[in-house]
């Protein structure tokens, strides 16, 4: 294809992305986030329980691995036990994904105002980083509540302090105000800014690479969308898992155990007690979850966007 044909293709792709409104991003992003949550939350519960179980000799640990945690959770709590703490992220997933996709689109426009030009991978990465900054306001309190509910469920009835997401949020607010709900904000930023950069960079880059010459990225087949989304999810967690381990331990620790943001204290304690491998605690559950959950997320987003473009082209 000649230079004129390439320019026409890039113009087509640029115009399609440019005319995705915030309202469409909100609805499509919510659909994608809901798909991600329903597919990925059971393994997220396993991940959190593995990351926060007491640091004792290996023969006495509550869970010996992801599969053992799965079996014990289902035997004690049933299949619904794998969905403990899902209420908080479910309530926030639509605005979170809307803001995430909006932040990525805004970042692309700021870094490359000319929609006829293709962005470099570094520009895609920085655009994704902006999305991570935007979503932290919603993600942090949701993660705080989710992790507390997931951890208390693994401790048996005697450890139950919260009746559900709303009860947990209200008790946190009554105890120490809004600061308690937003405990772990710095660590959430440290996790989400670079990991979102890797996430969106991988998906957008792979999506364009897999698009056949002469076709638009909107014509990408379902298997290719799933593959791009799954790989993007793996890239996200390769970058984000170590700070996620720190964040989870900090957010579920008793008040006053760690100073300040918790970064230095939690890192020092984990390295002292368990060594560098502690930063990838729960990795089996994370990577088992990452591919199918994020493949479902991007497929849900793309399908919802396609439906919205057909039902309401003027939005």
Automatic annotation (TrEMBL):
Gene3D superfamilies referenced in this protein's UniProt entry, alphabetically: Mitochondrial carrier domain
Per-repeat ranges for Solcar: 20-110, 119-209, 220-307
Assigned keywords, A-Z: Membrane, Mitochondrion, Repeat, Transmembrane, Transmembrane helix, Transport
Single GO cellular component term: mitochondrial membrane
Membrane topology annotation: Multi-pass membrane protein
PANTHER family: MITOCHONDRIAL BASIC AMINO ACIDS TRANSPORTER-RELATED (PTHR45624), MITOCHONDRIAL CARNITINE_ACYLCARNITINE CARRIER PROTEIN ISOFORM X1 (PTHR45624:SF23)
The protein's name: Mitochondrial carnitine/acylcarnitine carrier protein
Annotated source species: Oncorhynchus mykiss
Upper taxonomic lineage: Eukaryota, Metazoa, Chordata, Craniata, Vertebrata
Gene: LOC110532875
């Amino acid at each position: 294809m000649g230079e004129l044909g390439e320019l026409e293709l890039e113009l087509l792709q640029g115009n399609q992305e440019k005319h995705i409104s915030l309202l469409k991003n909100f609805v499509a992003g919510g659909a994608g986030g809901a798909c991600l949550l329903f597919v990925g939350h059971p393994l997220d519960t396993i991940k959190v329980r593995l990351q926060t179980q007491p640091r004792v000799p290996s023969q006495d640990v509550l869970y010996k691995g992801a599969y053992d945690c799965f079996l014990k959770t289902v035997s004690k709590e049933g299949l619904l036990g794998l969905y403990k703490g899902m209420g908080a992220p479910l309530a926030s997933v639509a605005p979170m994904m809307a803001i995430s996709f909006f932040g990525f689109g805004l970042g692309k426009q700021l870094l490359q105002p000319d929609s006829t030009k293709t962005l470099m991978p570094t520009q895609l990465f920085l655009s994704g980083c902006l999305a991570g900054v935007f979503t932290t306001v919603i993600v942090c309190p949701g993660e705080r509540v989710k992790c507390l509910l997931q951890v208390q469920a693994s401790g048996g009835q005697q450890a139950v302090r919260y009746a559900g997401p709303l009860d947990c949020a209200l008790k946190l607010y009554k105890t120490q105000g809004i600061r308690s709900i937003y405990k772990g904000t710095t660590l959430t930023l440290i996790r989400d800014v670079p990991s979102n950069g890797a996430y969106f960079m991988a998906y957008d880059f792979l999506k364009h690479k897999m698009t056949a010459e002469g076709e638009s990225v909107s014509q990408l087949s379902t298997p290719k969308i799933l593959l791009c989304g799954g790989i993007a999810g793996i890239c996200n967690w390769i970058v984000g898992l170590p700070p996620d381990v720190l964040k989870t331990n900090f957010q579920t620790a008793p008040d006053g155990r760690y100073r300040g943001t918790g970064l230095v204290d939690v890192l020092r304690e984990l390295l002292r007690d368990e060594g560098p491998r502690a930063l990838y605690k729960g990795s089996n559950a994370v990577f088992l979850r990452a591919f199918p959950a994020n493949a479902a997320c991007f497929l849900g987003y793309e399908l919802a966007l396609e439906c919205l473009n057909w039902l309401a082209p003027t939005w």
